[in-house]
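Reply to dn_fold:

You asked what the input looked like. This is it:
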Amino acid sequence: MLEQTNHSRDASRNGSAVVLSFLAMAVVSLAAVSIVRSHRRANVRSASVRDQVEGRLIAEGLVHRNVALARTNGSLPLVSLDAELSTSAFPDTWMAPPVVDVANQTVSLQVYMYPGATVPATTVTTSIAPAAP
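and this is what came back:
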């Protein structure tokens, strides 16, 4: 009789050990899934920030290039985008028509990164010296 009692205690202990090991595996699996999701979100956020910075740099480069061309040639270029931009990450970048203030000899340039954008990625107002006759 004593042997049967010990045998049933060992069996119940083995059963509880199996249940505890399954619970431990479940906890470790949930932790792994949450870590993977966290890394995925971080990667998406960093890619978004990187694209935003790249777009802003492209916009600022376009504005400063047009200012340099205007100072060199004495007039603002009508076409503000290079053909090279069509293969970049921002092929839809566009520039609003320049706003020229003749009285103050300034020009305001705005670059937008997406079609239909209402807020410019960058805006620069700079003085343009009158062209020499």
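The two ends are 119 Å apart (CA to CA).
Hope that clears it up.
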